[in-house]
Amino acid sequence: MNRDTVPVYAQIANELRQNINQGVYQVGDKLPTENQLSEHFSVNRHTVRRAIALLKSEGLLRVDQGRGTFVAGIPIRYPIGKRVRYNATMTEQGLEMSFQLLQAIEIPASLVVANNLKVSCGDKVALIERLTFVDDQPISISTGHFPLSYFPNILSFQHKMWSISQLLREVYGCDHIRQSTRVSARVVRPQDARLLRLPLNHPILLAESINVDQDGRIIEYGITRFRGDRMELVFENELLDTLNSKRSSKL
């Protein structure tokens, strides 16, 4: 196609796309401002906005209100299956993971936590909260609640909390099986926005999970907040089959 027949905004988008593909701008990099791009390409800001909107629709860019335009990464695929395999799933995709332990404390179970863990309100539970990074970018905050009647000394194993599944298996001989997961979308809360490096109006994916051991005993009530622009949650057939069979048995 003759370059003269290509709209100017599409030509700008093509050049920016090529820059991204060649690594001039890498994942997480902030693009120049609209004014700077307008001057660089000798066009008005409206034309630049159209180019950015095109690349945003392709998933190459994201616009954080008040912060600017950034190169977006390919969504990270996280299968929601029978077993909790967060670390293994990331590693299989060639991603480098790291964690920051935000808190590991004993608290009395609130009504919501107690109902989900099937314990009494006020019972002692361990709250373990971690911030997860992929390739040095924060992607999720997970808050797990564990009944201390089952795991009385779990808080003493902070050096093993980089993998909760491995901790439960090695220390307690306990499997970590997903019983149910409920996913919803919401606007990020201020404290999570700071940790996840998101603007306050940004959407996140909220996953509430109940996990059990090999005997079907509830061992964890977890709440994970995922960056909506980086994570793609995929429900695997084995979990869907289990949920469907449970639903059918109640009919």
Textual characterization of the structure:
The chain has 251 residues and is of the alpha+beta class. It has two domains: 3-71, Winged helix-like DNA-binding domain superfamily/Winged helix DNA-binding domain (Arc Repressor Mutant, subunit A); 76-250, Chorismate lyase (3-Layer(aba) Sandwich). 31% of the residues lie in helices and 33% in strands. The chain has eight helices and ten strands. The chain has helices at 8-21, 34-41, 45-57, 86-92, 111-117, 164-172, 190-196, 237-250, and strands at residues 61-64, 68-71, 76-80, 97-108, 124-134, 137-147, 177-187, 203-212, 218-227, 231-235. A six-stranded antiparallel beta sheet has the order 4-5-6-9-8-7. A two-stranded antiparallel sheet has the order 1-2. It has a two-stranded parallel sheet with strand order 3-10. The mean pLDDT is 86.
Mass-distribution shape: elongated
Topology as H/E string? HHHEEEHEHEEHEHEEEH
Give the tally of β-strands.
10
CATH first level of the largest domain:
Alpha Beta
- Per CATH, what is the topology of the largest domain? Chorismate lyase
Secondary-structure blueprint:
Layout: H1 8-21, H2 34-41, H3 45-57, E1 61-64, E2 68-71, E3 76-80, H4 86-92, E4 97-108, H5 111-117, E5 124-134, E6 137-147, H6 164-172, E7 177-187, H7 190-196, E8 203-212, E9 218-227, E10 231-235, H8 237-250
Parallel strand pairs: 3-10
Antiparallel strand pairs: 1-2, 4-5, 5-6, 6-9, 7-8, 8-9
Helix pairs in contact: 1-3, 2-3
